[in-house]
């Protein structure tokens, strides 16, 4: 097959995946249903777990940080929410097609459907934790400015980035099975060098550099800062926007080149 | 007009496992040739044939001959590493009961998801649901997760589902043998009606009786290569004779 056709097919795969959104809607909700089956509270466990985590963390760390309790709690809770989505998506990305083997080997179907399934599932998961976040904002009487609306384009950009990350890691982690372990370990370490539990401005120069050169820090900032500070740093938007363009280009080329090889790597 | 044209199809599986090099030199009677240098399995080699409306092709051959791989290539799941195939018409394929099903989801949910994948609208989906429930005779089981189905029941669901969604080309892999006598009768009837609508049927199986009854053409695959291709009677006779002599 010539290469132009390969790109066309890859683009079609993605477009067809978007068009068949009812499939990944259904698959994601079935995922959550089976994850919480026979529990009394179902997906509300997500809300409960998130609230208790935030409560525990703000109790432990809120007292030792150099910022007011309210600011710390809002900062940490919002960062933790977005981190939860990104971290789950990055780890799930490595097994996006491995876990769908029974579909990919049984039915000729767009491979991107499973990418959207993973992202949508994690987005729904985040939304349930988001209920707790809204409660925290109300409880701490956080006033919002018009700038808070920037959270909408920020979430959109987050989703756009999530798609290429899933395509990219999906391809290489299906072929090279070490990647999933590298990614899991890496995300565990990144949790500590990303400003989630700590606020850069209150830390030493070294930590401020961590926050500056870590793309995850910017990915958290574009969603968090409009809500917590009523502002956004243009550097964060610039970083996330550039990453989206570069990431999409690389991932699309990779996906186009190896899309039909994926089933041979199971 | 639906047609299937295979032109010089070849397919190599890459062996990514590290233990592959240690298995050289053993007497291999089944399965395709393993190329140790390239670390690949030559599952299909230069396969060509042409099928038009109403064709009923039987795929026969020993285990590992390439029957399932060929069906997977024709269904678009595997891309051939050499040659190409031209498929005109909507393809429906059944490989085994577990593929393309969610074990934790109900039968009904599974039907709905497959209909969505096929791009069916609400009323078409409703028709498929009714037809599958009626044909598979699963009754109230349709509202239970697949975990509670026996393998025969799962096969009923899969067969009913794959043949309920309209398609011009039906590919079946080793589905015979599961299901009770009564269901096998129903399956036979449905297949006849499928063929009568002048669609294309490709059937891989070891049950010569059923193949002789259903198909008019046969392709005999041996270690990924075409050993014989022709009328069902002729190819089946030779194949049976050779198999008997190997006993």
Descriptive notes:
The complex is a heterodimer of chains A (266) and B (247). Chain A is mainly alpha-helical. Helix content of chain A is 74%, strand content 0%. Chain A has helices at 3-19, 21-35, 44-62, 69-93, 101-104, 112-139, 151-175, 179-193, 205-213, 215-228, 234-258. The radius of gyration of chain A is 19 Å and the shape is globular. The two termini of chain A are 22 Å apart. The model of chain A has no long low-confidence stretch (mean pLDDT 96). Chain B is α/β, with parallel strands linked by helices. Chain B contains seven helices and ten strands. Chain B has helices spanning 67-74, 107-117, 122-136, 151-164, 181-196, 208-214, 232-245, and strands at 3-14, 33-35, 40-52, 56-60, 82-88, 91-94, 169-173, 200-204, 217-222, 225-231. In chain B, the strands form two sheets. A six-stranded mixed beta sheet of chain B has the order 6-7-8-4-9-10, with helices on both faces. Chain B has a four-stranded antiparallel beta sheet with strand order 2-3-1-5, with helices on one face. The radius of gyration of chain B is 19 Å and the shape is globular. The termini of chain B are far apart. The mean pLDDT of chain B is 89. At the A-B interface, helix 2 and helix 5 of A face helix 2 of B.
Keywords:
heterodimer; A: 266 residues; mainly alpha; 11 helices; B: 247 residues; alpha/beta; 6-stranded mixed beta sheet; 4-stranded antiparallel beta sheet; 7 helices; globular
For the termini of chain A, the CA-CA separation is 22 Å
**What is the total tally of β strands of chain B?**
10
Large-scale geometry of chain B? globular
Morphology of chain A: globular
The oligomeric state is heterodimer
Chart the SSEs and their pairings.
The complex is a heterodimer of chains A (266) and B (247).
Chain A: H1 3-19, H2 21-35, H3 44-62, H4 69-93, H5 101-104, H6 112-139, H7 151-175, H8 179-193, H9 205-213, H10 215-228, H11 234-258
Helix pairs in contact in A: 1-6, 1-11, 2-6, 3-4, 3-6, 4-6, 4-7, 4-8, 4-10, 6-7, 7-10, 7-11, 9-10, 10-11
Chain B: E1 3-14, E2 33-35, E3 40-52, E4 56-60, H1 67-74, E5 82-88, E6 91-94, H2 107-117, H3 122-136, H4 151-164, E7 169-173, H5 181-196, E8 200-204, H6 208-214, E9 217-222, E10 225-231, H7 232-245
Helix pairs in contact in B: 2-3, 3-4
């Amino acid at each position: 097959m010539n290469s132009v056709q390969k790109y066309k097919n890859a683009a079609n795969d993605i477009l067809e995946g978007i068009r068949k959104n009812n499939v990944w809607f259904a698959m994601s909700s079935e995922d959550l249903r089976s994850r919480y089956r026979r529990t009394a509270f179902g997906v509300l466990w997500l809300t409960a777990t998130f609230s208790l985590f935030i409560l525990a963390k703000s109790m432990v760390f809120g007292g030792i940080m150099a910022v007011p309790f309210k600011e710390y709690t809002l900062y940490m809770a919002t960062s933790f929410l977005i981190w939860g989505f990104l971290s789950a998506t990055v780890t799930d990305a490595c097994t996006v097609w491995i876990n769908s083997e029974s579909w990919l080997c049984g039915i000729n179907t767009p491979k991107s459907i499973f990418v959207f399934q993973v992202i949508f599932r994690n987005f729904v998961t985040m939304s349930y934790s988001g209920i707790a976040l809204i409660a925290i904002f109300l409880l701490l009487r956080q006033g919002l400015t018009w700038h808070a609306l920037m959270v909408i384009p920020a979430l959109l950009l987050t989703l756009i980035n999530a798609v290429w990350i899933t395509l990219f890691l999906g391809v290489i982690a299906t072929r090279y099975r070490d990647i999933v372990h590298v990614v899991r370990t890496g995300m565990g370490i990144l949790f500590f060098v990303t400003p989630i539990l700590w606020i850069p401005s209150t830390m030493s120069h070294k930590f401020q550099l961590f926050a500056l050169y870590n793309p995850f820090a910017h990915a958290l900032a574009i969603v968090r800062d409009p809500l917590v500070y009523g502002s956004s740093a243009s550097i964060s938007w610039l970083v996330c926007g550039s990453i989206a363009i570069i990431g999409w280009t690389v991932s699309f080329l990779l996906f186009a080149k190896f899309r039909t090889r994926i089933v041979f790597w199971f | 007009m639906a047609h299937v044209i295979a032109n010089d199809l070849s397919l190599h599986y890459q062996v990514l496992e590290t233990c592959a090099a240690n298995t050289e030199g053993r007497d291999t009677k089944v399965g395709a040739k393993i190329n140790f240098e390239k670390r690949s399995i030559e599952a299909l080699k230069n396969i060509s044939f042409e099928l038009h409306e109403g064709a009923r092709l039987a795929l026969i051959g020993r285990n590992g001959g390439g029957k399932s791989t060929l069906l997977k290539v024709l269904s678009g799941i595997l891309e051939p590493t050499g040659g190409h195939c031209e498929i005109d018409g909507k393809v429906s394929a059944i490989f085994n009961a577990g593929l393309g099903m969610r074990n934790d989801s109900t039968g009904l949910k599974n039907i709905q998801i497959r209909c969505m994948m096929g791009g069916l609208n609400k009323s078409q989906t409703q028709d498929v649901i009714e037809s599958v429930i009626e044909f598979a005779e699963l009754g109230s089981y349709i509202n239970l997760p697949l975990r509670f189905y026996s393998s025969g029941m799962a096969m009923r669901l899969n067969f009913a589902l794959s043949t309920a969604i309209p398609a011009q080309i039906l590919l079946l892999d080793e589905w015979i043998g599961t299901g009770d006598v009564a269901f096998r009768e129903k399956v036979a009837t449905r297949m006849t009606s499928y063929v009568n609508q002048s669609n294309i049927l490709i059937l891989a199986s070891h049950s010569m009786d059923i193949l002789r009854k259903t198909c008019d053409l046969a392709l005999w695959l041996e270690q990924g290569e075409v050993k014989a291709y022709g009328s069902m009677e002729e190819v089946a006779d030779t194949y049976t004779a050779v198999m008997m002599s190997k006993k």
